[in-house]
Amino acid sequence: MNTDNILHLSDLNLAEFIREMARWNAAGEIWEQNDLVLTKGAGRSPITNSAMNLSPAHDANSGSDTFDRIQSFYGARQSGFSIYIRKHADQALETICRQKDMLQVSDAPGMMVDMQIPCKQLPSGMEIREIDDVAGVVDFASVMMQSYVSLDMPPSIGEKIFASPERLLRPYNYLVVAYDKGHPVTAAMVIFSHSIAGIYWVGTVQNARGKGLAEACVSAVTNEALRRGAAFVALQASKYGEPIYRRMGFKEFTRYPWYMRFYK
Predict the structure, then answer these.
(1) Hey, which residues does 229 pair with through a beta bridge?
(2) Which 3 state secondary structure label does DSSP give 148?
(3) Rounded to the nearest 10 degrees, what angle do helices 60-76 and 91-99 cross at?
(4) How far from chain centre, in Å, is Cα 226?
(5) Which of 35, 127, 144, 174 could form a disulfide with 55 if both were Cys (CB 3.0 to 4.6 A apart)?
(6) How many separate helices (H) and strands (E) can be counted in the chain?
(7) Each residue of 221-231: pLDDT tens digit?
(8) Contact 168/24 with Cβ under 8 angstroms?
(9) Consecutive H or E run containing 156
């Protein structure tokens, strides 16, 4: 698959992820017009309220117009917000984000793999389970709320995101949780869309890190996605995950900087 198609499909899958996050709460909003996706989840945190531009690369004037539309949407809702930037197409919009003193919280590499990943043997007493019921989603959410403290996400935000666990049980979502003697310690998920799969919400609780469990869960969801026919599997790596994904065989194809503005 050529680079342009990889970029386009990865963009579309990331946009679908932010829509899906909004769907996890009954009060969520999804607004889309002229290639701009705006989502409003529970609360005022920029973590739950995200915007993404999907138009082709454009000039500085259109970048300013796009930012104004984003700011107007969230201003009317008295909410903080975040903007996902496509390094390959949003130079003008990123310039405006910087001029407006938005906080850049990450510069995540967009990475992909299109081949099965060898699975490592888990330590004794550990197993990876596919999640297909609410109890399993509750375990998944528990792992995420504990592990994402390292990425400065307060547990209260996680409680809002995962307030309706049954909403994650959709046929286009695939979740796994690793258990250590019955206790959930690591988890990962993929979202299927636009002929590919995207990996999101990968985490390990602090006292279980360094055992290769995140790598095992990522391998599990990646291989299942490819088995189901995904053309490739994409992700936006955290600073902690990037070296692991590179070692596993994921290749960088772009960057997705993430900017935030908090509600005052």
Answers:
(1) none
(2) helix
(3) 60
(4) 19
(5) 35
(6) 7, 11
(7) 999 999 999 99
(8) yes
(9) helix 155-161
